[in-house]
């Protein structure tokens, strides 16, 4: 969920601003976000998760325009969804203008042909956790981008945003193995935040992507997108147990050398997302999983076990490229 540094031959631009301090990021205890306060289960208004904490300034960071694709597109989109939330809260027209500026960048830099048609292409390798070389597209960026674009369309009436939102869903219909951003899971399909081989199935990224399908379906009257959303929720509900270790939630299903349990922040996000998804498309398995995950977080023993497991994972799979070069088992 953060715009981490990416390595490429060109001198890197300054890092984008961070809305969390170093200690908060290191411990990953909280993202400072909560349930969407203006989310509409029957329509499209506020976002199901409130990203307003990520929008500290009313204009997007200039690096997204000057170096498109080097930084994670999801960072721009989540900032813009937060700006839109601030506008809904009555903080002023400058916040809607900022969200529209971000939407304009998405329209400008959306791929217009080839396997990535409709996508926002990442032009740098992902630096940790998953082996990803450019170019690649993120199902999470596609879904969240579509959610932003339909909201800006609804506020402005500009059909460019509606068309871009529909096109953003195209990579979600293409398997990751073919350059898209989805993967098969038990006879169904889920969006892939990171299109790895084998599939990584990052839980929070899949859910954010599914919300994009839902928003396009509802806001633009797109029956196909709405059907794909419902099918995706069915797949999620049928398989949500796979992210349940019995004491904590998993961040992903990738075959790491050590299970990648969620940090405290991501575990809390999983609870929020499952509750919100169950509100949008009720499934008993989702509400049950949300309740289990919430109960895990109430146990000091389980929190401690999860913290230890996450620390062991980061020894096995470091975030730092420099550390990875020093640890033989972590080299890729």
Report on this model:
The protein has helices at 22-27, 63-66, 73-88, 93-109, 139-156, 159-168, 203-219, 223-239, 264-280, 284-298, 300-316, 321-326, and strands at residues 34-35, 49-50, 182-185, 188-191. The chain has 332 residues and is mostly helical. The strands form two sheets. The chain has a two-stranded antiparallel ribbon. A two-stranded antiparallel ribbon has the order 3-4. Strand 3 and strand 4 (188-191) form a beta hairpin. Helix 3 packs parallel to helix 5 (139-156), helix 4 crosses helix 5 and helix 5 (139-156) packs antiparallel against helix 6 (159-168). The radius of gyration is 19 Å and the shape is globular. The model is unreliable at 1-9 and 22-27 (pLDDT under 50).
**Beta-strand segment tally:** 4
Structural class: mainly alpha
Cross-sheet strand order for the largest sheet: 1-2
Helix proportion: 40-55%
Whole-number average pLDDT?
A: 91
**Helix and strand pattern:** HEEHHHHHEEHHHHHH
Span from first to last CA? 23 Å
What gross morphology would you assign?
A: globular
Main sheet, how many strands, which sense, barrel? 2 strands, antiparallel
Number of helices: 12
Question: What is the beta-strand fraction?
Answer: under 5%
Q: Could you list the spans in which at least 5 consecutive residues all have pLDDT below 50?
A: 1-9, 22-27
Using only C-alpha atoms, the radius of gyration works out to 19 Å
């Amino acid at each position: 969920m953060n715009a981490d540094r990416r390595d490429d031959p060109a001198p890197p631009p300054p890092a984008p601003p961070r809305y969390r301090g170093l200690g908060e990021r290191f411990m990953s205890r909280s993202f400072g976000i909560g349930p969407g306060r203006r989310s509409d289960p029957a329509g499209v208004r506020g976002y199901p998760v409130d990203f307003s904490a990520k929008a500290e300034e009313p204009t997007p960071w200039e690096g997204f325009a000057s170096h498109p694709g080097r930084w994670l597109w999801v960072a721009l989109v989540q900032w813009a969804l937060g700006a839109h939330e601030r506008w809904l809260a009555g903080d002023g027209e400058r916040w809607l203008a900022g969200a529209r500026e971000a939407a304009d960048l998405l329209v400008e830099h959306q791929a217009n042909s080839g396997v990535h048609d409709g996508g926002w292409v990442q032009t740098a390798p992902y630096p940790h956790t998953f082996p990803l070389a450019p170019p690649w597209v993120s199902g999470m960026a596609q879904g969240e981008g579509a959610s932003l674009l339909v909201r800006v369309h609804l506020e402005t009436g500009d059909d460019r945003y509606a068309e871009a939102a529909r096109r953003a869903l195209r990579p979600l219909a293409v398997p990751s193995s073919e350059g898209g951003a989805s993967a098969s899971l038990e006879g169904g399909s889920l969006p892939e935040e990171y299109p790895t081989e084998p599939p990584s199935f990052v839980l929070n990224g899949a859910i954010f992507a599914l919300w994009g399908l839902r928003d396009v379906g509802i806001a633009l009257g797109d029956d196909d997108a709405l059907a794909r959303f419902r099918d995706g929720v069915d797949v999620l509900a049928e398989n949500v147990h796979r992210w349940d270790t019995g004491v904590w939630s998993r961040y992903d299903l990738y075959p790491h050398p050590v299970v990648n349990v969620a940090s405290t922040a991501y575990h809390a996000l999983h609870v929020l997302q499952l509750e919100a998804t169950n509100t949008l498309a009720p499934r008993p398995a989702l509400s049950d999983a949300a309740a289990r995950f919430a109960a895990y977080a109430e146990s000091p023993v389980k929190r401690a076990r999860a913290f230890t497991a996450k620390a062991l994972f980061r020894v096995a799979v470091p975030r730092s490229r420099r550390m990875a070069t020093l640890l033989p088992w972590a080299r890729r």
